[in-house]
Write a structure and sequence with these properties.
The protein is 31% helix and 17% strand. The protein is an alpha/beta fold. The chain is globular.
């Protein structure tokens, strides 16, 4: 058994994509020296979440009415763990384009976010929207910009967006 704190990333789709590619950063040796990091595929539309021996459980799937029983089960069965959500899915623009009943959607988000010790936003704009939409405030709501160790990326000039 590892003496390092165990961190488990929960995802619902192992196919190659943005979230899976983003999780590759957790194989970085600098992180592996400090944490025992694993990735586990789950089916969040199931009612019962797995019991895990983890200090931190990080969720990477989208919140929905169908996932709420899973989230409540995850919190109950893993009371020893800090629960963190990385909000990859929702933004003001997504809500504008896809949500017909804003009150219902935002109620679902409030119920889901209640289960988490931290909700990580991937941009300042997303954090502002989440605070407006759900009342979620710092320090529970934090911003961590996506990271990449792509060589030479830091040397590129920043784009200018109107």
């Amino acid at each position: 058994m590892s003496a390092l704190p165990k961190v488990v990333h929960l995802i619902d789709d192992l196919s190659i994509g943005g979230v899976t590619r983003n999780l590759a950063l957790f194989r970085h040796p600098a992180l592996r020296r400090h944490f025992d990091i694993t990735c586990q595929e789950v089916h969040p539309d199931w009612s019962i979440a797995p019991k895990m021996d983890a200090a931190v459980i990080i969720v990477h799937f989208s919140m929905s009415w169908k996932t709420l029983p899973f989230l409540y089960s995850l919190a109950a069965r893993n009371a020893q763990a800090s629960l963190v959500l990385v909000e990859h899915s929702y933004s003001r623009e997504w809500e504008t384009q896809h949500v017909t009943d804003q009150t219902r959607f935002r109620s679902m988000l409030k119920l889901a976010y209640r289960m988490f010790d931290r909700v990580i936003c991937v941009s300042n704009a997303q954090a502002i929207w989440l605070e407006e939409a759900t009342g979620l405030r710092a320090p529970r709501r934090q911003i961590i910009y996506p990271w990449s160790d792509t060589q030479g990326l830091a040397q590129l000039s920043r784009p200018h967006f109107p």
